[in-house]
Amino acid sequence: MDISKSEKLKQHFSTRVTHQARHLLDLWRCLHDDQWQHERILDLLQANEKLLRFAQRFDSPKYIQIATQFQSTLAGIENNNHPSSEQLKTLNDLMLQLSQGVLRRNDQGNQAEKMIVVKKPIYMALNDSDNAIQLAQQMEYFGLRAELFSNQDDLNHAIGKRHPLAIIIDIDFQEIDNGLTIIAQHQGVKEAGSMKTAVNPMIPVLFYSSHCMTLKQKLQCLRLGGISSFESLAPQAIITQLESLVNLVPEQPFRILIVDDSKSQALFAEKALNAAGMITEKVTDPMEVWNVLESFQPEMILMDMYMPGCNGVELAKVIRQDKHYINIPIIYLSGEEDKERQLAAMAEGGEDFLTKPVDPRHLLSTIRTRGARARELSQLIARDSLTGLYNHTHILKALDEQLKVAQRNNTSLCFVMVDIDHFKQVNDNHGHPIGDDVIKNLALFLSQRLRKTDFIGRYGGEEFAIVLPNVSLEDAESIMNEIRNNFSHLLHGGLAAISSTFSCGIALHRGQSSNELIELADQAMYLAKRDGRNCVKVCPAKD
């Protein structure tokens, strides 16, 4: 059946909407680094106006809503150039909505809104053609399209015609070190062996070697724009690296609590941090800190040393006595110049000491460095070491928190249990390393296919738990069935590849406690096991 002219037009604008959304997200990422310069704000406004026009012509209510709200919020920042924390929260939330795939069905029909897909291909130039073909096939299940090349001329022609999302290349492609030479030519370095660094490399490169790389080779790969060097073509590791390139979700802004009895100093710090895209909360009375800690949940505290009623060292000691805040970085910002007193203050719970007046660049550099390390530590504590998903404790914590949100906002929530089928046989017949590959691949698959606002955890062993906020039971069943079907075609374990399946149970929150909801999802999952495995079952709704 031929597609009607109106349908073709609709598809055309659908593509333009998603491309413009990607462009807007790219501009948003650059805005904070440019300290909210007036020209950058104008660029963002123009890009958003274009998105709104496309969304209106495509008749996409969700994108119209996001673009309209983004425009009104951003227009209020244009004159003073520095957003407030409230404006930053609103804009970040809108960008998060723009970047994520949506499971909820739209008002016009039964088609769920599509994710913003990756259009650029990944060029692969590998001597091992069998492994290259298998890797390309596995990448397709993650929405990544590979183009394979068997000779240098074809690869050069393709790069000259169109830059790919990334290049995966054998360092010895066709001959010793030829892969390094090819990349050096395209990254602006005349000789690969010269150990020169590429100036502004244009293409991310993943280098592969069938033998153990020397330190010199690793340095060459790095200087040629290599983002990773692999000595194995295991799909899971390579796809994980590629996923970092296509992740559209903007990084969540740092949340900084400013404690300073001087209103002018607190305002100075707030403006500097807001301009860098960080969300702040000011407290000028140290005795009010505890209430703000609980409501604001900061990732870092910027604190004056000398304040009436309670000095910074005393306050840091009290904060450190609470296990919830024991790892939160505390940075002193004070006029104290005595090095001994600075060191003594840091010994009592502070991570760093900045002397007033502080250069805004120094302040931002310190905050970003400490903040990044704090986030990494928090991730290590909350995440399962094998999969990178939430561990058992933290997925249950996420469920409790999201149940409160759902009850407060009167929104839906689904809880999902997933169990890999016949996993003991995988370990017994193929070994634990292959079993680990199956677990890691399923974790990556779930992370890539679900929204970034969903919560995915390794419940234990081969079991996974998923919290889907604001999703109907029908849509939860649909997306989990799609994931189940695609996962069943995925291969694990390299050349000795095997396939695997999972069984899934889903329960809709209808006022139950977290334990009751888990029990219902667990019952549905065992029903899936009983009915032959490799299927999704929904817990019968109770009115």
Automatic annotation (TrEMBL):
It catalyses: 2 GTP = 3',3'-c-di-GMP + 2 diphosphate. It is an enzyme of class 2 (transferase). InterPro entries: CheY-like_superfamily, Diguanylate_Cyclase, GGDEF_dom, Nucleotide_cyclase, Rev_trsase/Diguanyl_cyclase, Sig_transdc_resp-reg_receiver. SUPFAM superfamilies: CheY-like (SSF52172), Nucleotide cyclase (SSF55073). GO terms for cellular component: plasma membrane. It holds the Pfam family Response_reg. GO terms for biological process: cell adhesion involved in single-species biofilm formation; negative regulation of bacterial-type flagellum-dependent cell motility; phosphorelay signal transduction system. One of its GO terms (molecular function) is diguanylate cyclase activity. Its cofactor is Mg(2+). The modification 4-aspartylphosphate is found at D304. The keyword Phosphoprotein applies. Keywords: Phosphoprotein. This is diguanylate cyclase.
